[in-house]
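JOB MANIFEST
job_type = single_chain_structure
chain_count = 1
residues = 509
[input]
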Amino acid sequence: MAFVLGIDKGTSVVKAVVFDEAGAARGQAQRRVGVLSPRPGWHEESPDATWDLTAAVIREAIIGAGIEAKDIKGVGISGHMGGAWLIDSEGRPTRNAICWPDERAQPDQMEIERAGKTREIFAISGNGLMPGITAMLLGWLSKHEPQIVADTRHVLCAKDYLRFRLTGDIGTDPSDVSFVPGDIDARGFSNHVLDLCGASAWIEKLPSIEPSEAIAGTVTRMSAEETGLAEGTPVVTGLGDACANALGVGALSPGAALTVLGTSCLNSLVTAGPDRAPEGLGFLFSMPGGHYVRILPNTSGTIAFDWFLDRFGAPLTSDGKPDFTALAAQAASAPIGSQGVIFIPYVNGSGVLAPFHDAQARGGFFGTGSHTTYDHLLRSVYEGLCFATRDCFDAMTTRPRTLTLTGGGARSPFWAQLFADVLDLPIETVSAEESGAFGVAMLAGVATGVWKDLDEAAGCNRVTARYEPDAQRSADYDDWFGLYQDARDVYRRYSARRAALKTGPEVAA
């Protein structure tokens, strides 16, 4: 039997999964990524430490699968998009990697907005700005760390750096270029966008662009020793995580929709062409096969849930982790509308990117009173994230017929049904739980002949559950959703005033 390996380098966790030719996960491992915050609001990683974690999970996944390394026919890598992974001519990091949640370039972004350049950038790229995109960070480095510009030879994204460590290949793919951002119509870099972001000094340091599905290189002897892979194993160029997740759940055709319940909730719709509507908001990424994925993200995804549990506590399992089954039962005991509490889930320091853009927007609980209990607050967090997802899909030009949920939160039947009722859409979950890893494993499998094409690879996925909306609950949630929209507009009205009054940076205590 043939096997393929998918590596998914997330913001919080790096995973490796060995899949067989039926698409089943045969061995997997994960390690938490070490986040460095040398200053408040900064989000960095040690590239060498992250590579060591990646090598460890690859080795553990192969051992867990109970196979020999030579049985793995190909490798694919997915990674979080944006950020900047910088190396010199010898392949050594010139500084810590900077990742997409980083806030250091927020003042530069505000300056670009005040100068009226954002519409021009969006017209070229189909992408809204945020502080952690590559071009913004490169512009910041040009001003504040000019020596790094001189020392750096190549600018890479997360998955590209890991592929470099595996193969020695320097390059990227159209999906990651989309979030630099580049020229979405040309599927390439845009020198003009880089110039508008103050990053023109980096143009000559950008890598070549190869198809996501192309074999970019093979595992070197050194990386084989570190990872347990066989020397010479083919490695494809790979994908940014948003696109890998779409492939991994089988969202290959225009009209397919998915929501990734991750650190950010990525609300995604596959399109035949570069659909920029609604103008100025969200992201537009290149997909294999000539398609695109339109994304209106709620940047405060499960980060909002984690924040709530950290601050208000949670029932724990025997190993000391939050008991999500018990949490769902507690939330289910509260009524629709959480006894009048609305949660506005804008807790991410990057602000809001959809369905409106406001880097200073923050959230809160509306409607609390002496009657409010933990269970009311808890349910309002579940509901608030569903409202935010509906808010994004309602802003798109095409309404999906069904919505696939993936990510850790998709394992909760309570939450999946809540999504169905709030969005008034059938919700499906699929067998590929690690959809990012499977998406790039599909590319590797097609490139090496394990599957004849992506359609055959996607056929390995099966629908594991389908949740139909309840007509009465959906009607009730229409009213609550209307109140949610009114409340978030009121909160938004005071974003700039709040930002001006507060003292000090926003950092976790």
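[summary]
The two ends are 50 Å apart (CA to CA).
The first helix runs from residue 47 to 65.
exit_status = 0
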